Amino acid sequence: MLALYWKTFRQDYIALRHNLGINVLFAFLGQVSFPLSLYIGLQYTSSLNASIYISSTPCLVLLINHFIFHERISTRNILGVIASTTGVIYLAFSNAQEATNLKIFGWGDVLTIISALSWAFYCAFLRIKNKEVKNTSFVAFSSLIGTIILVPMFCLHAALTQDFRGIIYDFSPQIIAGILYLIIFPSWLSYVFWNKGVSLIGTTRSEIYTHLIPVSGGVMGIVFLGNTFRVYHIITLLLIAFGIACCSTKKTIAKTV
Fold this sequence. Notes:
mainly alpha
């Protein structure tokens, strides 16, 4: 099994290397700019601000597809994106305990906006990636390039930071489990499944599903952290479900005799 996967990756690697420029762009947008600007930005702005900016990505993808790829955007898709985005913004403000949680615009907000733009361009440009390359190979190749880009940045950060204490401050089963979770799910499987989904239903319809992230986070908070289930969770879920339904229904074309 492992030998078969390695053979497939070698074949895909040749195809990926022939289009190195666009694959470097994919790695920079998806594996470097998107997570790096988001994680750093969240240290300087609130999660409420970040949720609002990230919720704009379906709208950004619609605009990119329309103006760059000249894709016709249906009224149903526009309605779905508006409804779903409204649900996410409503959830973000409902989670805020007071208005001061919406912090003044600053450096963290700029970084989070860059993160949203990076993800939007990454998703929109997936239509031009090599369709013959397996999604696992594509993600592995992008991760390799992303690592090559990030390692020098990490070394520079370590050299310029006086109180730098290393990557991991302490070893424990919880920390190891957390690191394995980050490697397997957010950094690998999520990209594989996302790329597969985009290849099946397209960038415009797939991007609306990013609005399930705050909903799933809220559900996990209720199940695992004991958070209180409130009415605004139901309203948000209904708005997002309506938005997904609008974007997921294919328009039938009547046949002419």
